[in-house]
User: Fold these one by one.
Assistant:
Number 1:
Amino acid sequence: MTTLELTKEQARSISNYKRMGIEIEVLDEKTVKITQSRLLNGFILNQKQLVERAKEIFPEHNIVPVVHSIDVDLIDLGWIEGRMKEFGIKRNDLIKQLAIDKSTLSSMFSGDRGLTKSQRAAFFFYFLTYELNRDFRENSIA
């Protein structure tokens, strides 16, 4: 961070956002960068939402938003199979719910066909939906 003096309220807001996976960095006297570095409860902010949050703390600054980006390289067959086991999902569920034909899915799981970036992202968000639904149901029952 630059040497810009922060008020106690600004410092507290930055700290609170950091706990929620949102990093705020003062780049210079006129510019602030806000980055969603991780997801909390699956909540993804767009650029406009990030700018709005930063403007609440730094209304006179130029804001540089950096939206959350998943690392699709972490999503491989082992990750997918682990999630399938965790949520009790079968291959037929994937075929129907992700509109993947059976031969394509078989090729993926046999290793004959690699996963594209878009397929990895689709699996990430597919399982994120299951995770959020599970958490929502558990919290609704309590």
Number 2:
Amino acid sequence: MTTRTFRIMVRGVFDGLTDAQRAELLAAAPQHDVLHAAFTHEGHLSYDLNARAAFTFRFLDQGEAEEDILEATERAEQAAQAWLTERGYGHKNFRSQAEDLSQAPLGKRQRRAANTTH
């Protein structure tokens, strides 16, 4: 059986941050800049509090079957929830979006490379 790779984004909005929490997030903002966003197994958090209080966690997970994406999404949501809760950051409007890369359409360059190898 082949391994499937899943990309999961967990989005939400910070809610009820104290002045100290906001200052802490602003101080750490350079390492959470959306320009450095990446899908990782640990989850990568990005936000721009100066623009708005929204955040996105990006996770990379794997499974063997198409339906494994549901468990991967649940793990990502739990990890994001744990990260926020451990730090006491309030949040709301949690939602997730997952993609099975084996089902993603090939880009123009990938199609060209696939056609030349056959």
